[in-house]
Design a protein that fits this description.
Layout (H helix, E strand, L loop, with lengths): L1 E9 L16 H13 L6 E2 L8 E11 L6 H11 L4 E9 L11 E9 L11 E2 L6 H9 L24 E9 L2 E8 L6 H13 L5 H10 L14 E7 L9
Parallel strand pairs: 3-9, 5-6
Antiparallel strand pairs: 1-3, 1-4, 2-3, 5-8, 5-9, 7-8
Helix pairs in contact: 1-2, 3-4, 3-5
């Protein structure tokens, strides 16, 4: 058996998230169908995580197994890009150790959330339009509080099957990029809906509805009902996943 990591990007707008489900088309389903068609055998894939409905990925990683080593991984990339929908593209396919895991071996994941304060026919498709003036200095001050904590139950979707709500946040900052405000957050793992709930709560800080101290208290209360509403998924992008070098094999 040979295991591979598959690197891909997708526009999540038409999909019901990453993970296969019975009530709508998903990114995982499309990629599995393409692999199965081209390799002529059922080829399930395991993703590095789950993106929700409408959420995008500039970089997602998944692993799959073959009975024998691929003779031309780059050729398979090109064939997959021909058969996949226009909003899913494969970057590369690389060999990894047989026990390498796209989800469990990830050292970190990075997301970016985009916001804009005016109507824009182009940027507005992938950014959340907010109204009024926001205090991004206060929002950054509140975001820095995230480093003090590891239990983020307050920002987790309710009734999930995870064993722990603990995450180690490594970066959380707002920055201006042209017409956009961008929130970048990096952690060893994320809970379902976590980034969108954090952004929604920081938004309440920015508009003066919560103080920085209130934001910290929301985290300490470990109660999803105390946090802000989740912001729309169309402005959220998974942008990077890091792995230890030793899990990769020479191609």
């Amino acid at each position: 058996m040979q295991r591979y990591f598959l690197y891909l990007t997708y526009n999540g707008t038409p999909y019901h998230g990453w993970q296969i489900q019975p009530n709508g088309i998903t990114v995982q389903e499309c990629v599995e169908k393409a692999l199965t068609l081209l390799l002529r055998r059922d080829t399930p894939i395991v993703g590095a995580g789950r993106t929700d409905t409408g959420v995008h990925a500039r970089l997602m990683v998944a692993h799959f197994d073959t009975e024998e080593a691929l003779r031309d991984p780059q050729g398979l990339v090109e064939k997959m890009n021909r058969v996949l929908p226009r909003d899913i593209a494969i970057y590369k396919i690389v060999p990894v150790r047989p026990d390498a895991h796209s989800r469990f071996d990830a050292l970190s994941r990075t997301y970016r959330y985009y916001m804009i304060d005016h109507k824009d026919p182009f940027l507005g498709t992938y950014a959340w339009r907010y109204h009024g003036n926001l205090d991004f200095d206060k929002m950054n001050e509140a975001a820095s509080c995230l480093f003090r904590y590891t239990d983020f139950t307050s920002f987790s979707k309710l009734h999930t099957d995870v064993k722990t709500n603990n995450c180690l946040i490594m970066k959380a900052v707002w920055a201006r990029e042209g017409d956009l405000w961008v929130f970048e957050i990096k952690a060893d793992r994320f809970l379902r809906n976590m980034v969108r709930a954090i952004v929604g709560t920081l938004y309440e800080v920015g508009r003066g509805k919560l103080s920085v101290e209130d934001f910290c208290q929301v985290i300490e209360d470990k109660d999803r009902g105390r946090a802000g509403a989740s912001v729309p998924g169309n402005a959220l992008f998974l942008v990077d996943i890091e792995y230890p070098k030793e899990i990769f094999e020479e191609s």
